[in-house]
Amino acid sequence: MEIVHATLTAVGVTAVSLTPLAGDASQRRFFRAVLADGTTLVAALYPAGHEGQAERDHAVQAWGWERGLPIPRPVGREGLVVVSEDVGDLDLERAMATTGENALVLALEALAGFQACEWRSLVTPPFDAAFFRRELAVFERYALAPEAARRPDAAAFLDDLAARLASHPYRLTHRDFHCNNLFLHEGRVRAVDYQDMRGGPDTYDLASLLGERGGARLAADEAGWVARAAGRLEWEPGWPQRYLECAAQRRLKVIGTFLRLGAAGRPAYLAWLPAVRERAAGALAALGTAPDLVRALVSAPHGGL
């Protein structure tokens, strides 16, 4: 923790205590710093040798904050440590337990902030078909049973799905806009884990919110919330098809990611697999995918489940 204390001093604050916080899917470690006046900050400590990543992520945060995005205020960076405003512990999943669907309404307002922001000056490159296909390659490696992986129609379907997403109208996407990255703070939703935001399909973040982790349980009326979002965010015509395509790609990608993390000794992610598989199957079926291909993609036992 000495490096965190040193960074806090370098950016002009002194912590009286540091408390480890739960991490995310990355290798970063997080700490809550309590200052002498009782206020708090959050410090992210990057792995050794990742100074360049810390610098880039801090630049993305500063870019977003300057444009009024609903993310934590950047405080400073030194070497491997990035210091930010603390937005608390009340994520959207917990908030829904007390505020009900009003929390989802606030999440839509946060999403509107991202979608209204011009993305082309951002240092992170926009999504393209090759990027989407690489994500699906992780799904193929970790999630497909051997007989499914040998099916030429499975690979062709994934190729086509990646190409279709790259043809969608683009907005600024958070890229991981699920309910455990969204925090209710001072009456509005703020998003963390924002460092990979980039230009991407207009429906992409909503597909993440409504289909992953706690969101798959909390948003029972997925179609109703998609229609509500389409009006609020002023999506171009054709959004129902685009949403299904994004939902299918994103959820298959997430299945592969969860299984990869489980194989790497992080089994907590496997608890979310049943719900995201169910939502993935629903999106695939709604796209008119052949039932036997849907079963091959998401219904065969893999990952030991």
The description of the largest β-sheet is: 5 strands, antiparallel
User: How does CATH name the architecture of the largest domain?
Assistant: Alpha-Beta Complex
Number of strands: 9
Strand content: 15-25%
CATH class of the largest domain: Alpha Beta
- Strand-pairing-aware structural class: alpha+beta
Low-confidence stretches: none
CATH superfamily descriptor of the largest domain: Aminoglycoside phosphotransferase (APH), C-terminal lobe
First CA to last CA: what distance? 38 Å
Report the radius of gyration as a whole number of Å: 20 Å
The overall number of domains is 2
Q: Provide mean pLDDT, rounded.
A: 92
CATH topology (fold) name of the largest domain: Aminoglycoside 3'-phosphotransferase, Chain: A, domain 2
Output the helix-strand order. Answer: HEEEHEEHHHHHEEEEHHHHHH
Helix count from the secondary structure assignment: 13
Outline the structure in words.
Helix content is 50%, strand content 15%. It is α+β, with helices and mostly antiparallel strands. It has two domains: 2-85, Phosphorylase Kinase, domain 1; 92-298, Aminoglycoside phosphotransferase (APH), C-terminal lobe (Aminoglycoside 3'-phosphotransferase, Chain: A, domain 2). The strands form three sheets. A five-stranded antiparallel sheet has the order 1-2-3-5-4, with helices on both faces. Strand 2 (29-35) and strand 3 (40-45) form a beta hairpin. The longest helix has 25 residues, at 239-263. The protein starts with a helix and ends in a 7-residue tail after the last helix. The mean pLDDT is 92.
